[in-house]
Design brief:
Blueprint lengths: L24 H4 L3 H31 L3 H27 L4 H18 L5 H23 L4 H10 L5 H15 L3 H26 L1 H8 L8 H22 L4
Helix pairs in contact: 2-3, 2-4, 2-5, 2-9, 3-6, 4-8, 5-7, 5-8, 5-10, 8-10
């Protein structure tokens, strides 16, 4: 996954971490519900990275040039490295990676099946929009994680280069054929709705993650803040749409 250069950046004047966010993993994981929430989070992220690797490898088959194919293959490799980092971490905290990922496989598989792109450009927009929404969501959660887990989560959300690659290719396609823009804008709006629905379903189905978001084991979240979080994600999506040359 990635957060492209034009994504919303954290404030330089963010307050110092408090509560769990100021603790390390050893201290924070003494709370069983917090540990369960982190295992869920790492499992969801790991399966997301594995799915991203598979999708990029498939998208490479649709690439119009050898250079594009090679670029996507390199990005796919970066996603798989992120997957390995997450599964290594799960193993290190004595959790079985497959078991941690399993609860999220169906929801993510359903999302990808329902949003299968019909061509190269739709694939680029899906990766750019869908992955960026997921990255924004996980970054919001990361702000309330213990310092060790937060560092890992942020590292696997590093940009693989796909964001800027997608913007360049999509804008060039729209410039060459302006009518393409309308179709891709509709596609991106559909992706936005599906991605937010999927994120909400995942959280709702997992008690530990739900508690983390609404202020149980996490520091500072409440129901109102959850609403503001999704508003921020929507705002960032609008900015990315503009970067693509599409109307939100």
């Amino acid at each position: 996954m990635e957060t492209p250069d034009n994504a919303t950046e954290a404030s330089e004047e963010a307050p110092a971490p408090t509560g769990i966010a100021a603790q390390d993993w050893v201290t924070a994981s003494a709370e069983p519900q917090y540990r369960a929430a982190v295992v869920d989070l790492l499992g969801a992220l790991a399966y997301g990275e594995l799915a991203a690797f598979e999708r990029l490898a498939e998208d490479a088959k649709l690439a119009p040039t050898l250079g594009d194919k090679a670029a996507l293959a390199k990005m796919a490799s970066a996603e798989f490295h992120h997957f390995e980092q997450l599964t290594d971490r799960l193993t290190a905290i004595e959790e079985e990676p497959t078991a941690a990922m399993e609860p999220f496989a169906k929801a993510l598989d359903d999302f990808h099946r329902q949003t299968a792109p019909s061509d190269w450009l739709e694939g680029l927009v899906k990766a750019y929009v869908g992955d960026s929404i997921a990255s924004d969501f996980y970054r919001e959660i990361a702000a309330r994680l213990d310092s060790d887990t937060r560092s890992l989560v942020l590292s696997v959300l590093d940009d693989t280069g796909h964001g800027n690659f997608a913007v360049e290719k999509v804008r060039a396609a729209i410039e060459a054929q302006p009518r393409v823009g309308g179709r891709l804008a509709l596609w991106a709006r559909r992706l936005m709705g599906e991605a937010l629905s999927q994120a909400q379903r995942v959280v709702a189905d997992r008690d530990a993650l739900s508690t983390m978001l609404v202020g149980g084991v996490a520091d500072g979240f409440d129901l109102a803040e959850v609403g503001r979080m999704f508003s921020r994600i929507t705002e960032a999506h609008t900015k990315r749409m503009a970067a693509l040359g599409l109307a939100a």
